[in-house]
TrEMBL record:
One of its GO terms (cellular component) is cytosol. This is Adenosylhopane nucleosidase, HpnG. It comes from the Bacteria. One of its GO terms (biological process) is L-methionine salvage from S-adenosylmethionine. GO terms for molecular function: adenosylhomocysteine nucleosidase activity; methylthioadenosine nucleosidase activity. Residues 55-190 form the Nucleoside phosphorylase domain.
């Protein structure tokens, strides 16, 4: 099958890549298609399959783990580049400027990508020192790589959920279902095994609420197609 031309690709919707189902729900809207619940190579394959059809551009959207100690839960980040562990991958400068104009409260800076959740303070500190990234997620580096391979515009907008100076409780990680939903039974099992996590989990829940509200506000401001101006 012949790959779509650049013009044909640009005729399609903006593809929004998220990790969790609730993020995809927030992202959905006119001029948008979402892809969520895939990790690592499965995400790369899913992206290539989807991008064989017309698409205007790809944006990574959702929550991220804080790496910069100055950033509190709910802080919006528009990526200036994506660090994939080896090198910086570019974002579309014009699209990123549009996002920053629509989101004046956002900070611009590097986002890091990781194939595994970065949950401990020690791991966050090490990754911040190695990359200079403001926050980390598990989708941006893959979406950036595939978009770059296929010559599509790419951007990323993420909101801090857990601050750099706080560990993520193991029960929260256990409760992340493979399809991007919350696995309640796995969460309860992890809590039974370690009931001392409850206070940290409650605090994370409060942080998650702030992040969700910030995501909703950001989504409302970027508008149709996530602010991607079609050429």
């Amino acid at each position: 099958m012949t790959a779509p031309s650049f013009a044909q690709r640009r005729a399609g919707p903006t593809l929004v890549v998220t990790g969790m189902r609730f993020e995809a729900g927030i992202a959905a809207g006119p001029g948008v298609e979402t892809l969520h619940g895939l990790r690592a190579e499965a995400l790369a394959q899913g992206l290539r399959q989807r991008l064989a059809r017309p698409c205007a551009g790809v944006i990574s959207f959702g929550v991220a783990g804080g790496l910069d100690p100055a950033l509190l839960p709910g802080r919006v980040i528009v990526a200036s580049a994506i660090h994939d562990g080896n090198r910086l991958r570019p974002v579309d400068a014009s699209w990123s400027r549009s996002l920053s104009l629509a989101l004046p409260e956002a900070i611009s800076g590097v986002l890091a990508g990781a194939d595994q959740a970065v949950t401990s303070v020690a791991a966050k500190t090490a990754l911040h020192a190695a990359t200079g990234a403001l926050a980390v997620d598990m989708e941006s580096h893959i979406a950036a790589r595939v978009a770059e391979e296929l010559g599509l515009p790419f951007a990323a907008c993420r909101v801090v959920i857990d601050p750099a100076q706080r560990d993520v409780p193991p029960a929260a990680v256990a409760g992340m279902g493979p399809d991007g939903s919350t696995d309640i039974w796995a969460l309860l099992k992890a809590l039974l095994a370690g009931p001392g996590q409850v206070p940290d989990l409650i605090r994370l829940g409060r942080d998650a609420r702030l992040a969700r509200l910030a995501l909703l506000a950001a989504r409302g401001r970027v508008g149709m197609g996530f602010g991607l101006a079609l050429g």
